[in-house]
Design goal:
2 domains, alpha/beta
Length: about 400
């Protein structure tokens, strides 16, 4: 039978036997190699086209760089891949660095965008079936998440109890805080830790992990509402920098300085943080969001005085980029999942319920969600409900 005939008649469904001693459960999976319209786990036909976001122009202006493609072909997974119907996708400050081509200046246009998602497996390759099943809920950290369906290498997918947005907050934001503080923070009980943008996607986790390590935690934020939230997750001293001068407050209340800074803002906040370091203090740079929307992507700092300030205090500035620490990733994710299951970890998500135009639903709202985050209006991790359309019923 020709491949065109197979496309007309539908997918080939077969069983895979797995197990020990010749006794194994029989499981139906879908042979995806010949059909662009294959069967999902509800026994319904997956559409041949979908919506997705595509970078067509390199720019730090997300709306300028990205377009919504209304009828992109639904991709077919390879042997070791999963096809995931996305239910929620995560918004990250780095999305605009990616759309500007800053991570790979040689990247060829157009290209997919989005780093993380959570949804259900609706198709998979043969070798991927050794670890995942059709119908399973998975979260993943992989390129091309801003789409209704995404092909994900099975090794990048993590099984989760349900396709809920809270799990998204762990993949990148939570893992960054967990690994950065573990590897570069050298936290000790009694240390004073400053977390900038503490009520944001990754800051909320840095606050909780520092507190679990027995530290006194200071967190910066931009509203009294966020300050109240920070108190609920253990922050000892929230500082609303809109109402209080951050530098003056730190000098007055912490004259001996702070031992560790978890810093994601850059610019003037970075300068204040350097000045606030105690002797042998460690400042961990996990980002500098204040510069991402500029043409260069780099905020200005008082770099000329940095060497002498660090020398006088035997202090250090340490950069952290999660892809350089992937050997720690599985351990971090496993530990956080366990904490979450035991009710020992808060994963606050912002779905845009309080946004002027309403909740972030549909890929069209990714643009609004990015702007919401950059306006500093988010409380927790910003997520978008993809809400792919219901698939048509099909009987084979």
């Amino acid at each position: 039978m020709s491949s065109s005939s197979l496309r007309r008649t539908g997918p080939r469904v077969f069983s895979v036997l797995r197990g020990a001693a010749g006794v194994a459960p029989r499981r139906r999976i879908v042979d995806l190699s010949y059909s662009a319209h294959f069967m999902d786990f509800h026994g319904s036909s997956i559409p041949g086209s979908m919506k997705k976001l595509l970078v067509t122009r390199l720019s730090h202006d997300f709306r300028e760089a990205v377009v919504l493609q209304a009828a992109a072909p639904v991709p077919t997974p390879g042997d070791g891949d999963l096809l995931v119907r996305n239910r929620f996708v995560g918004i990250n400050a780095s999305d605009i660095n990616y759309s500007a081509g800053r991570y790979d200046p040689s990247v060829k246009l157009p290209f997919d965008v989005g780093f993380e998602g959570v949804g259900e497996v609706v198709g998979l390759g043969l070798s991927a079936s050794a670890h995942h099943t059709v119908g399973e809920a998975v979260a993943y950290f992989s390129d091309g998440a801003f789409a209704e369906y995404t092909v994900v290498p099975s090794k990048k997918a993590v099984s989760v109890p349900a396709a809920k947005p809270e799990f998204l907050s762990l993949l990148l934001s939570g893992a960054t805080a967990y690994v950065a503080l573990k590897r570069l923070g050298d936290l000790a009980p009694g240390d004073t830790v400053l977390v900038t943008a503490a009520a944001g996607g990754t800051g909320q986790f840095a606050v909780q992990f520092a507190k679990r390590a027995g530290c006194h935690v200071i967190g910066t934020c931009s509203s009294d509402e966020k300050a109240g939230f920070l108190k609920t997750i253990g922050c000892d001293r929230p500082i609303n920098y809109v109402a209080e001068d951050l530098g003056q407050t730190l000098r007055r209340e912490y004259p001996s300085g702070v031992d560790v800074v978890y810093e994601s803002v850059g610019g003037a906040v970075f300068d204040v943080a350097v000045n606030a370091l105690a002797n042998k203090g460690r400042l961990i740079v996990i980002g500098f969001i204040s510069g991402y929307r500029s043409l260069s992507g780099i905020p200005s700092i008082r770099g000329g005085t940095l060497p002498v300030k660090l020398l006088q205090k035997s202090a250090s500035v340490r950069g952290f980029f999660l892809p350089h620490f992937l050997h720690d990733y599985q351990d971090a994710l496993g530990s956080m999942m366990e904490m979450l299951a035991r009710g020992k970890l808060v994963c606050e998500v912002d779905r845009g319920e309080m946004a002027p135009e309403g909740s972030f639903v549909g890929l069209e709202s990714v643009f609004r969600a990015v702007e919401h985050m950059y306006a500093g209006k988010n409380l927790g991790k910003v997520v978008v409900e993809v809400a792919p359309p219901a698939v048509a019923s099909s009987k084979l």
